[in-house]
Every structure is written in structure tokens, then in C-alpha cells.
Amino acid sequence: MVNGEVIIRKRGADRIRHGHLWVYRSDIVEAKDAEPGGIVKVCDQRGATIGKAFYSSQSQIALRFLARGDAKIDEEFFRKRFEAADQLRERLGVDPRLSRRIHSEGDLLPGIIVDRYGDRIVAQSLIQSTDRLQPLITRIISDRYHPQSILFRNDSRVRELEGLELKQEVVGDPLPETIIVDEDGLQVAIPLAAGQKTGAYLDQRDNRRAAKRYARGAALDAFSYGGAFALHLSSVCDSVEAVDISAPAVELVRANAERNNLKNITAIEANVFDFLRQRHSENARYDTIVLDPPAFAKNKDSLEGAMRGYKEINNRAMRLLRPHGILVTCSCSHHVNEGIFAEMLADAANDAGCWVRVIERRVQSADHPILLTVPETLYLKCFILEIVY
User: pTM for this structure?
Assistant: First the structure.
């Protein structure tokens, strides 16, 4: 499988030796017989072998490492990586039928996402190399999980950085518009082909369970999408308002609430920023608020504007909460690290005239593993706060 050799500068070599998996194009000295999307041997300028990596001819991330040293990269190598990922999730007690099975760099398989929804698998190939390996990935998934169908949602815009087409492909049986999965006893409809991410936010599953431990009274689930937080909160709260700007998302909340006979959920189509302002002007009060917005900071250039947006919604939420109310607030923007996020929350609390007590600091669910030396694998921050006046 390995063809070609890439020589990299000391800066890139040191980055890999310190545990990261990426080498940028600016650190490449020479690429010998390296094909777009190929697997290459990587050496430093003294000729020492550093490891084997996926090679991209387009992305600024030119190399994504698979292994250090002179490891043999063949079909068995990839099968063992899948096996190791499944073993990790078994040790963690992750639901084997509703979970992320491969989390890209977090499972040492860059550019590959594999999510399981019962008898359906949704996979994403994000880089040139995994696109070339898609037939192999299909075989491994079929052999390990025996799915009824595999949907390759290769429609993420990150593929454009690799010069790849945005498309969807189905292997096996055709997909229904939605499937029903069991999440902690709740029957939840998931639109695999048309939904966000791979259909649902599996990365928030542990945080939904945590939020349920503290929630009470009148609750608000802002940026609700299909209402996963709202569904979990409904059993411990008197009422739950689920707000999203997307009409299909709001209909999905209503359908999920009806399916589970949850009569205390109200789905509302609205811009969350406007909704929070309106509720404040009406002197509304809540006991529990969940803020789970989309990534406001898509890149470093958008960070300043993103932080203004985060501060506004958190400040509004703090003002809407009764004393000792609970705020579950999240950011899935990689460029917003936990320190920046915490500083913003402190500023929002000062402007709201309250203190905030940290109940829990959380990250993405355990089936989205974090590689300590690859900070990009830690992208989801979740604070559970108590508002104190």
C-alpha cells in the first residue's frame, strides 16, 4: 500500500516526534513519487524514517500520520485499528448499537468517521487517502458490523480543501427518510441523509445524561435541532421549550415528543438570539437552560465575532435564570478552547450581575476519544453552571 517517500523539515519531524499526527505543506522538502491520496514513507532531512502517513496533494495538512517507524501498512493494519477502536468502546461501556465507532485522529485513523445507528452505518471520508480506501473501509465495516446499509456522507465542506467532490453514496439497502433509534429508553427519529453531522449529535450523549441530573422546573433547550436535550429533560422538568431556527428541526422535535408521549415539550421555530431578547423583555424566567449552538468560530479569523455571539447568548441566558438556576452551555468550535470559553462565561456573568458556580466541566462523549498530543481532537466544551445572585 505504501508508495512514494516524503522528506520533511526538522520542524515537521519534531512535531510528529512530540506526538501530533499532522505535517503542514510548508514543512515538506520533497515528495518523491507521492500520489494524491497515497500512503507514503516519511523521512527527515538526515534520512531517518519517521513513519508512514496519508499524503494529500491539495490540503495545507499534507501529511496525516498512521504509524511511527517502519510499520507495515496493509489491510490487516486497518482491520486491527478498527478492532482496537471497538475494544476501547467495549471497555468504556459505550452503547454498541448507537455510538461513534471510529473518531478519525482520536482512533489513529485520520480522515475516517464511522457512526453506528442500529443496523445502519453512516461513514465519512474526509481526505484524499480515505477516499481511495473507501472500498477497503466498506469491507471492514461490513465484516465487523453486518449493517443493513452503509451511507457514506461525503458531503462535508472540509472535503473541498482536499479537492474532493461533495456527494452521498449508499451501499446496501436504500435508506428510509428517518430511522428510529433507542437512546436511553427514548425512541428518537434520526434523518441520516438530511440531518446534521451524520444524522444526530452522538458527541453530546453523555452531556445529555449529565444535564438531566441537575435539570428541574421550567426548562429551555436552545438550538435544539431534533430535541435530544429536551427529550431527556422532559422527565425531570415541569415544562421544556425547544427552540430552533430550522422548520424541519422543529417538526422533528414535535414528532419525537409525540412518539414518546411527552406532553410538556413545546417546539418553537425562532432565531435563538431574538428569542432570548424577547423572553427577557417579557420578564420570563427559567430554572434550566441548555445552550448548544452550532460552531460560531469556523476558523481563527472568525474567533472575535464568535466570542461576541457566545457572550450574548450566555449573558441573556444568565439573566433569564432564577437564582440557583442551571445553565448547560456548550461550544463545539475547536478554535474556542476551554480557557477562552471560561473567560467569556465569567465576563457574561459579570455583565449579568451574577456569579456562576461550576458544577461540572465536560467534553464530548467517550466514544469520541481525545488524543492528548492532538488538541484538535478535543473540540466540544460543556460547562454545567449554577447561577448565584
Answer: 0.95
